[in-house]
What we know:
Elements: H1 3-13, H2 22-44, H3 49-66, E1 77-79, E2 85-86, E3 105-107, E4 113-118, H4 132-149, E5 155-163, E6 172-183, E7 186-194, E8 200-209
Antiparallel strand pairs: 1-2, 3-4, 4-6, 5-8, 6-7, 7-8
Octanoyl-coenzyme A is lined by residues 84-85, 140-141, 144-145, 148, 155-158, 185-186, 209, 211-212.
Enzyme class: hydrolase
Main location: membrane
Keywords: Apoptosis, Cell membrane, Cell projection, Cytoplasm, Fatty acid metabolism, Hydrolase, Lipid metabolism, Membrane, Transit peptide
Amino acid sequence: xxxAGAAMRRVLESRExxxxxxxxxxxxxxxxxxxxxxxxxxxxxxxxxxxxxAIRDEVAALTARLSAARREHPPLVGVxxxxxxxxxxxxxxxxxxxxxxxxxxxxxxDGTARAEFTLNVLYEGPPGFxxxxxxxxxxxQLLGVAASANGTxxxxxxxxxxxxRPTPHGVxxxxxxxVDRTEGRKTFVDARIIGPDGRTTVEATAMFVMPLR
Length: 213
Ligand SMILES: CCCCCCCC(=O)SCCNC(=O)CCNC(=O)[C@H](O)C(C)(C)COP(=O)(O)OP(=O)(O)OC[C@H]1O[C@@H](n2cnc3c(N)ncnc32)[C@H](O)[C@@H]1OP(=O)(O)O
């Protein structure tokens, strides 16, 4: 394991996070997907007040059933040689997190972290467009994955954003991030979100710093 990977493992182990096997992850990921669909249905529903009240009570009963056995912290899956962590409950693409936008990040052979995704109305800011904070969150994660894939993971120390034009929701988007350079414990990474017309909507530059301990 690289020094960076070992350092990130120390950071995560100090949080006492459990690992799940593939079968457990798949089962909970399916549950999370059903809850995502529920979330969207809540925003769009036009059913009457009595039906809303009945559904509210059913949802409360389901929450009580799930809470019958609880972990103290959300689980993680593994730390790779480069320090890459699969954070199952991440608010960006975490398969167990029902509020996570569906952003699956893939690292390409040249080190670019890339994701193709479509955001629904749950992530709306201005009508018809993605909330700027959601774009920032997705870019922060993508930038962090690129830094990790470079063998230089760290904590976000700075995140600079330039919102060039509104990012539409309900259409396919692409986001990419790539390391520009490293200076000691600092890693500088650039990223952007690209709309369906091929034009950049948001640009970001971040500096990640590997904590000493
Ligand atoms: C694969 C998973 C991807 C995950 C992606 C998501 C990542 C996240 O969301 S991380 C959460 C958000 N970020 C945070 O909470 C970070 C909070 N801050 C910290 O933990 C610390 O301040 C940390 C680790 C950034 C730096 O702490 P520390 O190691 O003590 O840094 P320190 O020794 O003071 O500084 C190291 C260098 O970095 C510089 N630096 C540190 N912080 C900053 C900053 N905010 N701005 C500019 N420069 C900074 C210092 O000036 C110093 O530079 P030099 O070596 O040239 O003098």
